[in-house]
Write a structure and sequence with these properties.
Blueprint lengths: L2 E3 L4 E2 L5 E7 L4 E5 L5 E2 L4 H5 L13 H15 L11 H11 L3 H8 L6 H11 L6 H18 L8
Antiparallel strand pairs: 1-3, 2-3, 3-4, 4-5
Helix pairs in contact: 3-4, 4-6, 5-6
Length: about 160
């Protein structure tokens, strides 16, 4: 299956370009330079390559990375709607669970389409004061929208 490679997203500390691509099945891949591509979602190693996207200078805020990917899709002549299949949530959850990028990962998660699992995860984070108030507020706002849309309540009224 052919992979449509986008222009590199960034160059890592070893001066290797990190790229993502998408195949006809809307599966996203990543690679270092011109090495073997890896399916994003298969293992932590491939997702770790993309963690710097959460950092200032490489992307940072969710909307900046979203716009970066959107521009790469346009540049390649691919439909920008493909960005909806990009695994932002998967990358953010891995970064949250395994790195010091927790607050950055939570900001990304607040921009995702919530599922029952993401809503339950967010409800727990919102109550935990070890995370920044700003990020907990972003998650709470997103969770409240999801609750209203789905007619459920995961957070007690305060």
């Amino acid at each position: 299956m052919k992979i449509h490679w986008l222009s590199p997203l960034y160059t890592n500390g070893a001066s290797v370009e990190i790229s993502v691509g998408i195949n006809e099945g809307n599966e996203w891949f990543t690679r270092w330079g011109n090495k073997q591509p890896y399916l994003i979602n298969k293992s932590k190693k491939e997702v770790m390559m993309l963690w710097p996207l959460l950092d200032e200078g490489y992307g940072g805020k969710y909307n900046l990375v979203f716009n970066l990917l959107e521009s790469r899709l346009k540049e390649k002549g691919l439909p920008i709607t493909l960005i909806q299949s990009f695994p932002f949530t998967y990358i953010a959850l891995h970064a949250f669970n395994a790195s010091t990028r927790q607050n950055k990962a939570l900001e990304w998660l607040s921009n995702q389409e919530f599922t029952n699992e993401l809503a339950a995860f967010s409800a727990g984070i919102i109550k935990d004061t070890k995370y920044s108030q700003e990020v907990r507020h972003l998650l709470k706002r997103s969770l409240k929208k999801w609750e209203k849309k789905n007619n459920v309540c995961m957070l007690q009224k305060s």
